[in-house]
């Protein structure tokens, strides 16, 4: 990924946060947690990945 160090750091931070959230979702499923709670956390992971993707696109467009 091409971009300034701050943009790259922001994307990596978002992806690491999503990775942690996803690990939490996996643990919830393994523990047999309520489906509603799992889906809520899965939606949070999805939003985090969307934000990371938007940041990548914005950085690429700014550097084009």
Can you walk through the features of this model?
GO terms for molecular function: DNA binding; metal ion binding. Belongs to the CsoR family. This protein has 64 residues and is mainly alpha-helical. It has one domain: Up-down Bundle (Methane Monooxygenase Hydroxylase, Chain G, domain 1), CATH 1.20.58.1000. Helix content is 84%, strand content 0%. It contains two helices and no strands. The longest helix has 28 residues, at 35-62. It is elongated and about 45 Å long. The protein starts with a helix and ends with a helix. The model has no long low-confidence stretch (mean pLDDT 92).
Structural class: mainly alpha
Question: What is the share of helical residues?
Answer: over 70%
Q: Please, how many helices?
A: 2
Tally of strands: 0
Q: Quick one: CATH superfamily?
A: Metal-sensitive repressor, helix protomer
Query: What's the number of structural domains?
Result: 1
**H/E element order:** HH
What proportion strand?
Answer: under 5%
Q: Which CATH-level-2 architecture?
A: Up-down Bundle
CA radius of gyration: 14 Å
Principal-axes geometry comes out as elongated
What is the CATH topology descriptor?
Answer: Methane Monooxygenase Hydroxylase, Chain G, domain 1
CATH class: Mainly Alpha
In angstroms, what separates the terminal alpha carbons? 12 Å
Largest sheet: none
- Spans where pLDDT lies below 50 across 5 or more residues: none
Averaged pLDDT: 92
Keywords: Copper, DNA-binding, Repressor, Transcription, Transcription regulation
Protein name: Metal-sensitive transcriptional repressor family protein
Organism: Mycobacterium xenopi 4042
Pfam family, one: Trns_repr_metal
